[in-house]
Design brief:
The structure is a homodimer.
Chain A (H helix, E strand, L loop, with lengths): L1 H9 L2 H12 L3 H11 L6 E7 L5 H14 L4 E7 L10 H6 L9 E7 L7 H14 L4 E7 L3 H7 L4 E6 L6 H7 L7 E4 L7 H15 L8 E3 L8 H18 L1 H32 L1 H11 L5 H12 L11
Parallel strand pairs in A: 1-4, 1-5, 2-3, 2-4, 5-6, 6-7
Helix pairs in contact in A: 2-3, 2-6, 3-6, 6-7, 12-13
Amino acid sequence: MEELIRYFDKKDNVSLGKLLKEVENQTPLSYDILKYSSSRKGKAHIIGITGPPGSGKSTLVGKLCNKLAAQGLMIGVVCVDPTSPYTKGALLGDRIRMQGIAKLPNVFIKSLATRGNLGGLAASTADIVQVLDAYDKDVILIETVGVGQIEFDVLEVSDTVLLVNVPGLGDSLQTLKAGIMEIADIYVINQADRPGADESVKDLNLMVRESGKTDWSPPILKTVATQEEGIEELINQIYTHRSYLQNSGLWKEKRQTRNITRLNSMIQSLLSQKVDDHINTEESLQQKIEDVRNGKRDPYTISHDIVNSLVANKNTYQYGG
Amino acid sequence: MEELIRYFDKKDNVSLGKLLKEVENQTPLSYDILKYSSSRKGKAHIIGITGPPGSGKSTLVGKLCNKLAAQGLMIGVVCVDPTSPYTKGALLGDRIRMQGIAKLPNVFIKSLATRGNLGGLAASTADIVQVLDAYDKDVILIETVGVGQIEFDVLEVSDTVLLVNVPGLGDSLQTLKAGIMEIADIYVINQADRPGADESVKDLNLMVRESGKTDWSPPILKTVATQEEGIEELINQIYTHRSYLQNSGLWKEKRQTRNITRLNSMIQSLLSQKVDDHINTEESLQQKIEDVRNGKRDPYTISHDIVNSLVANKNTYQYGG
C-alpha cells in the first residue's frame, strides 16, 4: 500500500500508465488502487465526446487537448471503442495519437477496447477516469463511438457531454433522436464548412426547444476542427457549462450519484461471487440448476430456493452494523 | 391458479391480451403466469427482425405474417420500441397494425415501448415471448429498432435473427460492423428495386466470408416487401435455419441457455430486494451509505460490510438443499 501511494505521489506518466494497466486488467492490486484513488478524486472536469463514426471526433479531441494544454492544464484522454473485433480500422486512441498531442508532457492518453466484452466497458471506463482524477488531472476527455446503450453507460461518468455531428444530418436525425440526443449538454456541428451546416443548426435548435430542457439550454456550435475554427468558442461553452453545474449544485450531485452507483455495482459483483461460491459447495443446488436448464424445474421457484439458502433470516445476521 | 390455467386453456386473443398485460405491468399475478408458462414453453420458433429505421422492417413483418398465417400457423408478433419519448413517430406496433394483419384471427400483436426505462425492456420481451410460446404460438416475430446494446439483449431471445437493410449501405456499413452484424443469421436487402442492391449484396457477401462463421453461412436475400417480392424465399431460408438449429442441437441448447439466463436474472433481482430490505432495517448501514455518497467513506470497503452482514457464514445456512 505504501508503495502504491508512492506511485500516486510520483505524478509521472510512466507510473500512471502502470497503475491504469493494473486497473484495466483487474489484477489483485487494482482493488487497493481504486480504494485509494476513491478518496482523492472529485476535482477533474469530466467531458464526454460522442457522435457517429466519421464526424471528426478524434480531430476535435486533439484540438481541444492542444488548447487546454496550452492553458497549463493537466489532461487525461480516455478513448473508448465499444466496437467488435470485426472492425479493422485504427483504434480511437491511435487516431488521437496521430494528432501529435501524445508528445505534450501534460497530456495522458489511455485507450480502452472491448474485444467483444461490452458488459465491463462502462465499469472499466469509470475506474480509469477515477484514477486519472485522483492523479490530479484537471480535465478528462472521454471519446466514445456512438453505438447505443453502452455509450449511455460510458457517458454517465461525464459532467459535460458533447455530441458531435456533421452537416446534413438528414436520416440520421431520427436515429439520433432515438438515442443519445437528450443527454447532450453541447451540440457541435463539425466540418461546418460543408454545405448544410446552418440548416443542421436550425434543425437542432428546433429539437432542443421542443425537448423543453429548462435550466440549461444546450448551445449549438459550428466547428471546423481541421482548421481549428470554433475551438475557442467551444472551450468557452464548456467552461460556461462547468460554472452552471457548480452554481446549480449539480456538480456535487453528480459526484454523489456516482459514488452510490459504484457502491451498488460493487455490492452486485460481491453478491454474485457469493452465489457462485454457495452453489459450488451445495450439490443439491447444482442438481436443481441442472433441472432448470433442462426445463424440468422452473427458474422462479429455484431462484427463491437459492437466495433463501444463501441469505439467512434477519435475526441470524452476524455482523450487522 | 386454477383460474389462471383456465385463462391459458381458453386460447383466445382476449385472454392472452389480459395475461400479457399482467406480465407487462408486473402485477402480483405475473409471477404465477410466468411460473406456469415456463413449464409449457419451448415449442415456438422465435424470429428476431432488426435493422435501421426506414429499412422497411414493419412492412416486411406484415408480409411474413400474412404468408405464415396462410399456412395455418399461429403467430405472435412483439414490437419492441426502445426509443425515447422524444420520438414522435408511430409506434412499431401501430405501423404493423396498419398492414391489416391484426384482422387475421391467428395473428396476435403486442407492442412494448420503453418510455425512458431501457433496463427492463429485454426482460419484459423475454417474459412476453415466454407467455406467447406457452400459448401455443408456432412462430413469434420480434421486431426491434436498431439502437445498440438493448437490441442485442432483446434479440438474445431469438432463434433466428434477420438483419434488414436497404441498398447503398455506404457509411452505415461501418456502424453495422461495429454492432449488430455478427448476430444476424439471415441478411435481407429490402427495397431491392432501388439502385445499388446488388452492390450491397456483394459487400455483405464479402463481410460474411471474412467473418469466418463456420457451420451456418448466413444467406443474403433481396426483397421488395411492398411488392411481396422475395418473401417466399425468405420464409424458405427461415425454415432452413430452423432445421439447421434442430439438427445441430443448437435449438435445444439455446432454450437451455435461456432457462439459465432467466434463473440468473431472477436470483439477481431477489438479491437486490434482500439488500434493500437489509439496509432499511439496519440504521448503521444507512449512515455508512450516506458517508459513501458524500465521499467520506469508500464504496469498496462499505460494499464488503453490507454483503458480509447480509450473507451469513457458510455453516449457518438455514435451508441449504
